[in-house]
Design brief:
mainly alpha, Ribbon_hlx_hlx, 2 helices, 24% helix, Arc_rbn_hlx_hlx, extended, Toxin-antitoxin system HicB family antitoxin
Length: 115
Amino acid sequence: MSERKKILLRLDPAVHDALARWAGDELRSTNAQIEFLLRRALADAGRLPGEAGGIPRRGRPRKAPAQGASAGAPAGGTAGRTDGDATGRTDGGTAGDANGGTTGRTGGGEDGAPG
């Protein structure tokens, strides 16, 4: 793949914040979200060059599908899941919980007080 262009982009802070929230919702970086939106806009307008490469995949490579598995879904799971639960977490917690529990508390009694 060829070297990717680096550009400086000036945005209104409110627009940047909205893009960053949207990117987080879709588990992308802000930069990847901007590129995704630009590519989609170019494709919708019929202006995406045919020689444009794909968006590079980040992270760990996907596992090869098991023998007899359908080509559309990853081996051994629901389409779109790689491992972990339905939220993509692997630490046993629930969505919105950073500590592996169910309430998001860091410790303490029922009233949330430490100890």
